[in-house]
């Protein structure tokens, strides 16, 4: 009989604590092994039966998922923030045992780790995003250096290579000029790396047919299409647009209490409206940035008239941008699932996205 085994792994930088439970919940084995590919695979292969493995989402989660998935029945990467809390002492062995038990009783909230076909694209997206963030930090440091000396530096003129001597000449002290010059050099290096990373990302993105669908949507260019494809992986992991909104940080959070009341001796839902408490806080930041920036692009392009009409009607521009971002996300999910390109004639506008 191919008995089910449930394996909980408490993963750390150097060591991993493993606990194995059978289908009845009995602890069958424990081990402390090195967090190395061969050591982990040797332990997995030493177990018999239908193996189900879980560990928490973290730095090594993607690597572990790809390593273990071909050798077991299922792998569940769980969200550590949604694991039920317990009182008492905390220890690695106890954590591994608890993960195995929660996996056996279906008590874990999984984090998506599924599309190996986009794993290469995801790494290139991370590389590109990291370089862009570093470049932004250097530019902010450069402007801060001048602003701290009372030198006006708004706009992009300070970044132009043909004006750097004039900018450096405004700094009175030689050490400041040296510091600013090094920041200029660092900015140039990052700009070059950004171009290289962007080119590699675009080349990899063109290998996926879904990027052509995504690029047809207003506001979504080749870079944003690659980011959406790499992070989301597949549209079929989201059942509804509201699930997708929440993943992208575009889901509206509402709160309500005393929802029911007695009327003529019968329980009825009260007419009190839920209070809006902003957007959900647990989301993927890269996707939120992709859709909000796409909304800004669409607002100055094909959807400019709709943007101006809403703003002229008194709606806060930030709310209009959010509505546009939610609309673009909805269109993205629908067209991606259907495998169709964007057709403006089929789109009902802003009021349908709320």
Summary keywords:
354 residues; Nucleotidyltransferase, domain 5; 12 helices; 3 domains; 5-stranded mixed sheet; alpha/beta
Could you please describe the fold and organization of this structure?
The chain has helices at about 35-45, 60-70, 90-105, 120-145, 165-170, 175-205, 210-215, 220-230, 240-245, 285-300, 305-310, 315-340; strands spanning about 5-10, 15-20, 25-35, 50-55, 75-80, 250-255, 260-265, 265-270, 275-280. The protein is an alpha/beta fold and about 350 residues long. The protein is globular, with a radius of gyration of 26 Å.
Give the SSE string: EEEHEHEHHHHHHHEEEEHHH
The largest β sheet comes out as:
5 strands, mixed
Question: Helix/strand-derived class?
Answer: alpha/beta
Kindly estimate the percentage of residues that lie in beta strands according to DSSP: 5-15%
- Identify low-pLDDT runs: 350-354
The backbone outline, from C-alpha atoms, is globular
* End-to-end separation: 52 Å
Mean pLDDT: 90
Q: How many distinct beta strands?
A: 9
List the domain count as a whole number: 3
Helical content band: 40-55%
Number of helices: 12
Summary, kept brief:
This protein is α/β, with parallel strands linked by helices and 354 residues long.
How are the elements arranged and paired?
Layout: E1 4-11, E2 15-22, E3 27-34, H1 37-46, E4 50-56, H2 61-68, E5 74-78, H3 92-104, H4 119-147, H5 164-169, H6 174-205, H7 210-215, H8 222-232, H9 241-247, E6 252-255, E7 260-263, E8 266-269, E9 275-279, H10 285-299, H11 304-312, H12 317-338
Parallel strand pairs: 1-4, 4-5
Antiparallel strand pairs: 1-2, 2-3, 6-9, 7-8
Helix pairs in contact: 4-6, 4-8, 6-8, 8-10, 9-12, 10-12
């Amino acid at each position: 009989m191919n008995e089910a085994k449930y394996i909980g792994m408490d993963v750390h930088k150097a060591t991993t604590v493993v606990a194995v439970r059978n289908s009845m919940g009995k602890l069958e084995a424990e081990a402390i092994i090195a967090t190395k590919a061969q050591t982990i695979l040797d332990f997995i292969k030493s177990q018999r039966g239908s193996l189900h493995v879980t560990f928490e989402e973290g730095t090594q989660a993607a690597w572990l998922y790809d390593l273990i998935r071909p050798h077991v029945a299922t792998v569940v990467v769980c969200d550590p923030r949604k694991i039920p809390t317990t009182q008492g002492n905390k220890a690695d062995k106890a954590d591994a045992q608890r993960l195995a038990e929660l996996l056996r009783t279906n008590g874990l909230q999984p984090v998506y780790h599924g599309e190996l076909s986009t794993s290469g694209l995801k790494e290139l997206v991370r590389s590109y995003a990291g370089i862009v963030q570093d470049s932004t930090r250097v530019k902010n440091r450069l402007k801060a250096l001048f602003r701290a000396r009372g030198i006006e530096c708004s706009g992009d003129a300070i970044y132009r290579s043909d004006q750097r001597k004039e900018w450096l000449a405004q700094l009175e002290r030689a050490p400041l000029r040296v510091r600013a010059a090094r920041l200029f050099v660092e900015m140039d290096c990052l700009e070059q790396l950004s171009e290289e990373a962007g080119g590699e990302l675009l080349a990899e993105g063109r290998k996926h047919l879904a990027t052509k669908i995504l690029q047809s949507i207003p506001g979504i260019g080749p870079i944003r299409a690659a980011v959406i494809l790499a992070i989301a992986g597949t549209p079929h992991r989201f059942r509804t647009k509201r699930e997708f909104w929440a993943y992208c940080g575009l889901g509206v959070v509402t709160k309500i209490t005393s929802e029911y009341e007695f009327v003529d001796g019968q329980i009825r839902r009260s007419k009190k409206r839920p209070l809006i408490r902003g957007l959900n806080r647990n989301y993927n930041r890269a996707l939120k940035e992709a859709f909000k920036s796409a909304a800004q692009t669409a607002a100055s392009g094909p959807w400019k008239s709709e943007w101006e009409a809403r703003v002229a009607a008194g709606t806060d521009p930030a709310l209009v941008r959010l509505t546009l971002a939610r609309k673009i996300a909805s269109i993205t999910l629908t067209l991606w699932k259907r495998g169709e390109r964007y057709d403006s004639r089929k789109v009902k506008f802003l009021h349908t996205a709320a």
